[in-house]
Amino acid sequence: QVQLVESGGGLVQPGGSLRLSCATSGFTLDYYAIAWFRQAPGKEREGVSCITPSDGSGYYVDSVKGRLTISGGGAKMVYLQMNSLKPEDTAVYYCYVDTPQRYWGQGTQVTVSS
Questions:
Q1: 8-state DSSP, 99
Q2: pLDDT digits (tens, 9 = 90+) for 61-86
Q3: Exposed, middle or buried, 86 (CB in 10 Å: 0-12/13-18/19+)?
């Protein structure tokens, strides 16, 4: 059974940092790209970043380039390091995999506010 469990969200001041974690189970992480999405209140869910298992390359939406870094951690974990956070980064962040069945985690809230 595929499961994705996010953690690491919280309240942080503008300019601060957070590291989100996605714990995966039920599939072989090396075989599938993993993505992070986010959904802000009143907005559609948007893709933020993804990592390809073949070479570990990360891809980013323009609004987060240079501030967010996606990485793998061993056989079961994916991380999203978030630096220089802005109020517009406030959202629920979701981990996602397409195996090709689509699976979402439950999400973790990130709030950037002074």
A1: S
A2: 999 999 999 998 777 899 999 999 99
A3: middle
